[in-house]
Amino acid sequence: MRKNSRSGMAAVEFAMVAPAFFLFLFGIIETGVIFFAQSALTNATNDAARMVRTGQLKGDITASQLTDAVCGEMTGLMSLQTCQANLKVDLRVYGGFGGASYPDVLNPDGSLNTNNMAVNTSTACSVVLFRTFYPWTIMTPLMAPLMSNMPSDQYLMTAAAAFRNEPYPDQQHVSNALC
User: Fold this and answer.
1) Residue 172 within a domain
2) Predicted local distance difference test score (pLDDT) of residue 120
3) Structural domain count, the chain
């Protein structure tokens, strides 16, 4: 062997730097995917809230109707069945903004407490708080301890919309006057 041979040095240096490089690369990709999914959940929640606000969904709304409305707009990220199985919704109706109170939906360990979620009957001119919760499973195993905020290496994505329903034109007791 020659005294000053440098062949193979780049491979050795790359082997030393590669784990940190790939951890950094996968962290960027994972963060981008979560950011995109959070943005999609927020947009889908706002669109479903608009359906409630304008009276397209009113009265005895079910959790499955709200889930279908939100998941119908998130099918590019996951299958409809996966979204419907994992998405949790909470719709609260109040007489005014000042009297609004709502229970915490997280357990002390960070998991979702679905017993504190409800879907109330929505009427014209009522104040509504609509919240959605989706536990996103982190794809990169090495990133899970760094990014998870729930048990089972999941990241809880949430979105919320608070609004006053419009006066629905087909209801007898509400005239065309403002709420």
Assistant:
1) no
2) 93
3) 1
